[in-house]
Design brief:
The structure is a homodimer. The first copy, chain A, contains 11 helices and 14 strands. By secondary structure, the first copy, chain A, is of the alpha/beta class. In chain A, the strands form 3 sheets. A 7-stranded parallel β-sheet of chain A has the order 3-2-1-4-5-6-14, sandwiched between helices. In chain A, helix 1 (14-23) crosses helix 10 (278-298) and helix 2 packs parallel to helix 3 (101-115). The relative contact order of chain A is 0.15. At the A-B interface, helix 1, helix 3, helix 4, strand 13 and helix 10 of A face helix 1, helix 3, helix 4, strand 13 and helix 10 of B.
Chain lengths: 328, 328
C-alpha cells in the first residue's frame, strides 16, 4: 500500500464533521487534524483521537498535510481563507456564491500559483455535480434546454429568512420541485417555466408567545426575493414537533437536459440526488476531489481548478487500468 | 471565430448518419467527408454536399482532418480499424465489447502513441456516460452499491438472436427495466438482485409462412444467455405492424448509486437517459469527445484515452472562464 493521503480539515461545523466521517470511509486517506478559529479545547471531534489545532498556527503544519479541505462558509470564511490557505497548501472548498465565482477563482488562482499548490474551488453538488451535468447536457445536446430543480430539501438561507420575521421563534423551510413542471420537461416539451411554476415553498414555524399567526404568515409570504414569487405554505407547529420531525437536513434535486437530434428525435438526460444529509454528501464530494488535488499536485500542476477541469478518473482510488477493466 | 475543427466519418450506417447530423449542430466543427469500404458512388449522405471517399485512400487526407470519428462495429470493424487509423489520425470510437476493452485499449494506445495522435475509445453512453456515473458513484459514496438498468429499449444483439430462430421472418426485442427492483434501489435498500429481477424482455415476432408459433416461442424463451434467465414475453404480429410500430431505435437506462454516509444517512445518486434514437444520441456523445481529442492533441498529448481521462470542460465549445460564469 502506498503512503496515505494526509488531509486537514479547516472549520468544524456540519461540513467538517461530514469530512471527518467521509475520510474514515476512504482507506487511502488519513486525517491529520482539525483546524479551528475557536478555542481548540472547546471542539470535540466525533473521533476523540482526532487532533484539534488553532487555525492561526496552521502554517507550521505545512510538511504534514497533503490537502486541506476548507469547510467554512462562502459569505464570511472562504473569501479570506481560500486565497490565504491556497498560498500554503493544496486546498478543496465548496464556495457556492454563484455570482462571485469568477472573482473568487481569480483570487485563489493567484495565491495557489504563487505557492505552487492546487486549489479546487466550488466542489459539492451545486455548484459541483449539478454543474457537470449542465455542462454534459449542453455539450452533447446543443439543440436543447437545461432545467435545474432543487428539493425536496431544507434550505438554510430561506430558513434563516423566516427566522428573522418578527414573532417567529424557530422555523425551517423546504424547497419543493413542482412535479407537473418536471413531467413536462421529462416529456421533452422544453417549456418556458416561471419561478412560480418550478418550485413551491413550505415553512414550519414556531411562534413566539403572543405573536399573531396571520401577521407572521403574511410577512413570510410577501417577502421579496425569498417568497413573494412562489406559492408558499406556512404551517404553525409546536417547538417539540419541530425538534422531533424537522431536525434532519435532507436535500437533493434534478438536472434535466432535453434536446433534439437528427430530424426530430427527443433525447432526455436526467441527473438526480436524493440526500438524507446534505452536508454529509457535500463532504463526501469534497473528499473525492481532495484525492484529485493530491494527484494533480504530484504531476507538478499548480493554480485554481473547478470540477470542469478534473478528469473523473482522478477521483477514484483505483488506477486507470482497473477503472477500464471494472467500470467502463 | 477560430478555425473550425475538421471531422472525418469512417463508416456510414446509423451511427455515421447520426454523426453527420450532430456535426451540423456544432458551429465550431465542419465535416470533411465520409470514408466507406463500400463503393463511394453507392453511398448517399443526408447532406448531398458531403464528399464520400473510399476508405482505402484515407491516408492521403491526413493534412485535411483534425479528428476521425470511427462509426464501425465493435465485432468486425474496430479491432482492425481502431489501431490502424489511430496511427494516422486523432480518433474517437464507440468500442463496446466490455470484456475486451483492456486489449483494445493497449492496441490503440500503441498505435496512437507511435503516430503522435490522441485516440479516445469506448465513447457513447454505455460504455461512456454510464461508466462515468458508475465511477462518480463509487468514488463519492465508497460505502454503497451501484446498479445499472437498461431500457426500455430496442436491443440489436437480442433482436438478432430472435431473428436467427428457425421460423422467424422478422423480429425486434425490447429490454425493460423492472420497476419494482428500481424502486427498491431508489429507497436505498441495496438489495441483491438476480438477473431475472432486474430486467424483463419483450419480443415482437413476424412468423415465416407455415411456422409453428408455440415452437418458435419455446425456442426463444429457452435460449441460453439471451433469454433463459429472464421473464420473456413473445408477441406475434404482422409484418405491417412491425414496420409501422417498431421501426424506431429507442433506448436508455439508469445508473443508480445507493450509499451511506455518517452514522446511517442514505444517499442516492441517479443518472438516466430516455432516448428516442439510440444511435443519434451515441453520435452526439462521439462528436463532443471529438472536440476534446482535438484539444488534447493541440496540447501535445498522444496515446489512447477513455472518458475517465477527459476533463469535462474539454467537451464544451465554451472557454473555461465562460463555463465558470455560466454553468458552475
Amino acid at each position: 500500500m502506498a503512503e496515505k493521503i494526509r488531509i486537514g480539515i479547516v472549520g468544524y461545523g456540519n461540513l467538517g464533521r461530514g469530512v471527518e466521517a467521509a475520510i474514515a470511509q476512504n482507506t487511502d486517506m488519513e486525517l491529520v487534524g482539525v483546524f479551528t478559529r475557536r478555542d481548540p479545547a472547546g471542539v470535540s471531534p466525533m473521533n476523540a483521537a482526532t487532533p484539534v489545532h488553532a487555525l492561526d498556527g496552521i502554517a507550521r503544519h505545512q510538511g504534514e498535510i497533503d490537502v486541506l479541505i476548507l469547510c467554512g462558509g462562502s459569505k464570511n470564511d472562504l473569501p479570506e481563507q481560500g486565497p490565504a490557505l491556497a498560498a500554503l497548501f493544496n486546498t478543496v472548498d465548496s464556495y457556492d456564491t454563484h455570482a462571485r465565482i469568477p472573482d473568487y477563482f481569480a483570487a485563489v488562482d493567484k495565491a495557489a500559483a504563487s505557492g505552487g499548490n492546487i486549489a479546487i474551488i466550488s466542489v459539492g453538488w451545486d455548484p459541483g455535480l449539478f454543474s457537470l451535468n449542465r455542462l454534459f447536457g449542453e455539450a452533447i445536446l446543443p439543440d436543447g434546454a437545461t432545467y435545474t430543480f432543487w428539493g425536496k430539501g431544507l434550505s438554510q438561507g430561506h430558513s434563516d429568512a423566516v427566522r428573522r420575521v418578527p414573532g417567529v421563534k424557530a422555523a425551517v423551510q423546504y424547497t419543493i420541485p413542482a412535479q407537473q413542471a418536471m413531467e413536462r420537461v421529462r416529456r421533452g416539451e422544453q417549456p418556458a417555466l416561471s419561478t412560480r411554476e418550478k418550485h413551491t415553498r413550505e415553512c414550519f414555524v414556531v411562534l413566539q408567545e403572543g405573536a399573531d399567526a396571520a401577521t407572521v404568515e403574511h410577512a413570510i409570504k410577501s417577502m421579496p426575493d425569498y417568497f413573494a414569487d412562489y406559492d408558499t405554505a406556512v404551517h404553525f407547529i409546536s417547538e417539540e414537533t419541530l425538534q422531533r420531525d424537522h431536525y434532519a437536513m435532507p436535500h437533493g434535486g434534478f438536472v434535466i437536459r432535453s434536446g433534439k437530434t437528427g430530424k426530430a428525435s427527443k433525447q432526455v438526460m436526467e441527473y438526480s440526488l436524493k440526500l438524507d444529509s446534505n452536508p454529509e454528501f457535500t463532504s463526501s464530494v469534497l473528499v473525492a476531489y481532495a484525492r484529485a488535488a493530491f494527484r494533480l499536485r504530484a504531476q507538478g500542476q499548480a493554480g485554481a481548478r473547478t470540477v470542469f477541469d478534473i478528469a473523473p478518473g482522478l477521483l477514484s482510488s483505483k488506477d486507470p487500468a482497473q477503472l477500464r477493466r471494472e467500470l467502463l
